[in-house]
C-alpha cells in the first residue's frame, strides 16, 4: 500500500472539501484516463485495490500511472473513549481528490481493454469517475 516515507506533521486537520482541481486535470502520460467527477477522500486501500483490478484485467500488459498519492493522515480514536485525552493515533492515509482530477492513466492496450480495466477500477473507488481518451 502507498504511504509517505516522512511527514512534516504527524496529524493533519480535516479541512474543507470544496471546489475543483486545478492541477492534474489533463492526460499527461498515457492514452486513456480515469477522471474524478466529484470531490472525496480516496484511501490507500482503495487505490491499491483499483490498481490490482486494472493490472489483472489487462493481464500485466500495458503501462499504468497512478496520478494521486495518499499523503493525508487520518486519525481514529478508540470506541467509548472519554472526552479529552487528545487526538487519536494515525489510522490510515488518504489522497484528497477534487472534482476534475485525473486518477489513473493507461497506455499500451486497446481502448476496449482500457475501458474495461478502468470500469473495474472505478468500482473499487469511493468517487464517481469518467473514462477519457487522449485526442490526437
Short structural summary:
With 136 residues, this protein is of the alpha+beta class.
What does it look like?
It is a single chain. With 136 residues, the chain is of the alpha+beta class. It has a domain at 32-75 and 88-133: Aldehyde Oxidoreductase, domain 3 (Alpha-Beta Complex). The protein has two helices and seven strands.
Write the layout of secondary structure elements.
Elements: E1 32-36, E2 40-43, H1 44-57, E3 63-66, E4 72-76, E5 89-97, E6 102-107, H2 111-124, E7 129-133
Antiparallel strand pairs: 1-6, 1-7, 2-5, 3-6, 4-5
Helix pairs in contact: 1-2
In CATH, the homologous superfamily of the domain at 32-75 and 88-133 goes by the name Ribosomal protein L16/L10
- Name the poorly predicted regions: none
Q: Please report the distance between the alpha carbons of the first and last residues.
A: 34 Å
What is the fold named in CATH at topology level of the domain at 32-75 and 88-133?
Aldehyde Oxidoreductase, domain 3
Entry keywords:
28% strand; 2 helices; alpha+beta; 21% helix; Aldehyde Oxidoreductase, domain 3; 136 residues; 4-stranded antiparallel beta sheet; 3-stranded antiparallel beta sheet
Amino acid at each position: 500500500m502507498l504511504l509517505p516515507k516522512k511527514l512534516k506533521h504527524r496529524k493533519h486537520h480535516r479541512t474543507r472539501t470544496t471546489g475543483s482541481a486545478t492541477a492534474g486535470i489533463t492526460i499527461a502520460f498515457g492514452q486513456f484516463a480515469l477522471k474524478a467527477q466529484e470531490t472525496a477522500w480516496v484511501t490507500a486501500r482503495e487505490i491499491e485495490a483499483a490498481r490490482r483490478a486494472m493490472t489483472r484485467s489487462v493481464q500485466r500488459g500495458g503501462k499504468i500511472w497512478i496520478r494521486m498519492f495518499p499523503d493525508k493522515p487520518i486519525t481514529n480514536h478508540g470506541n467509548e473513549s472519554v472526552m479529552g485525552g487528545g487526538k487519536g493515533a494515525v489510522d490510515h492515509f488518504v489522497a484528497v481528490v477534487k472534482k476534475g482530477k485525473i486518477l489513473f492513466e493507461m497506455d499500451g492496450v486497446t481502448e476496449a481493454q482500457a475501458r474495461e480495466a478502468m470500469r473495474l477500477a472505478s468500482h473499487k473507488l469511493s468517487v464517481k469517475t469518467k473514462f477519457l481518451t487522449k485526442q490526437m
